[in-house]
């Protein structure tokens, strides 16, 4: 809701009610609050690519995958419907009732990502792959207690800042979907709500890229962290608490 509504305000406000930074901040705040809301319940699986990666690595049973994906889909779909209702009057005024995917009054990009006209499909795929690899690498570093992990209680905020950073630096080409759960459900909603099947054919049938590239990028981020950081971590020392033994804490 925070992310999509920030896009809606920038687009429908014609730049008078926010800029690109507003969108980056909106998604960063949304991620932070989402982690606080669901962290203790489910580990805050807000991203299908991360959920699938955890299943592949054996950190999450495959039998739980459908429930997680359904929850993510319903949450994102409901968010799109909420923002649509919130800004329906502004949408109608901006488009004169003609909801389009491309053109001077295109509004489909409020809900889902679309590549910039100059970006090739390969370039767009690489952008999403790289951005998601950085997302996973950042998340793993933030939670790496064997290294210089984040202070307890700050992980949600730092993850939100991480998403903000990705948007600031890697959002130009594709709008940084970096999450199948963030992109597909709103796309389905827009197809139903008046934009039609153009949402699946625009950008040289771009819709499948935000589904596949983030999953591969997520796995790449895990591999990079494992090869270049995790295997070089020092084991966590056991605190000596025997009589006469000095307790040494090592960061």
TL;DR of this structure?
This protein has 251 residues and is mainly α. It is 62% helix and 0% strand. It starts with a helix and ends in a 23-residue tail after the last helix.
CATH homologous superfamily heading: Glycerol uptake facilitator protein
The best one-word shape is: globular
How many domain units? 1
CATH topology name:
Glycerol uptake facilitator protein
Number of distinct beta strands: 0
Helix content: 55-70%
Share in β-strands = under 5%
| H and E order | HHHHHHHHHH
Distance between the termini: 38 Å
Alpha-beta classification: mainly alpha
Low-confidence stretches: 242-251
Q: Which whole number gives the mean pLDDT? A: 93
- Largest sheet: number of strands, sense, barrel closure: none
* Assigned CATH class: Mainly Alpha
Q: Architecture, according to CATH?
A: Up-down Bundle
The Rg value, from CA coordinates, equals 20 Å
Task: Figure out the total of helices.
Answer: 10
SSE topology:
Layout: H1 2-12, H2 20-42, H3 48-57, H4 65-86, H5 88-95, H6 121-142, H7 155-170, H8 180-195, H9 198-205, H10 209-228
Helix pairs in contact: 1-2, 2-7, 3-4, 3-10, 4-8, 6-7, 6-10, 8-10
């Amino acid at each position: 809701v925070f992310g999509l509504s920030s896009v809606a305000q920038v687009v429908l406000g014609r730049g008078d009610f926010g800029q690109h930074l507003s969108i980056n901040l909106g998604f960063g705040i949304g991620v932070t609050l989402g982690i606080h809301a669901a962290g203790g319940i489910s580990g805050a699986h807000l991203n299908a690519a991360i959920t699938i990666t955890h299943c592949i690595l054996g950190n999450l049973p495959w039998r739980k995958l459908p429930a997680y994906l359904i929850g993510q889909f319903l949450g994102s779909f409901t968010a799109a419907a909420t923002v649509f209702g919130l800004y329906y009057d502004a949408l109608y005024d901006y488009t004169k009732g003609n909801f389009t995917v491309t053109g001077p009054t295109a509004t489909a990009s409020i809900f889902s990502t679309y590549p910039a006209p100059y970006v090739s499909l390969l370039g767009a795929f690489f952008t999403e792959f790289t951005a998601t690899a950085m997302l996973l690498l950042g998340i793993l570093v933030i939670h790496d207690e064997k290294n210089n992990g984040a202070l307890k209680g700050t992980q949600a905020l730092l993850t939100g800042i991480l998403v903000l950073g990705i948007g600031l630096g890697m959002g130009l080409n594709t709008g940084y979907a970096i999450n199948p759960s963030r992109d597909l459900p709103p796309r389905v909603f827009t197809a139903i709500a008046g934009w039609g099947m153009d949402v699946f054919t625009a950008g040289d049938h771009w819709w499948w890229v935000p589904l596949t590239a983030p999953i591969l990028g997520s796995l790449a981020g895990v591999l990079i962290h494992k090869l270049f950081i995790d295997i070089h971590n020092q084991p966590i020392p056991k605190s000596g608490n025997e009589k006469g033994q000095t307790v040494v804490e090592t960061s």
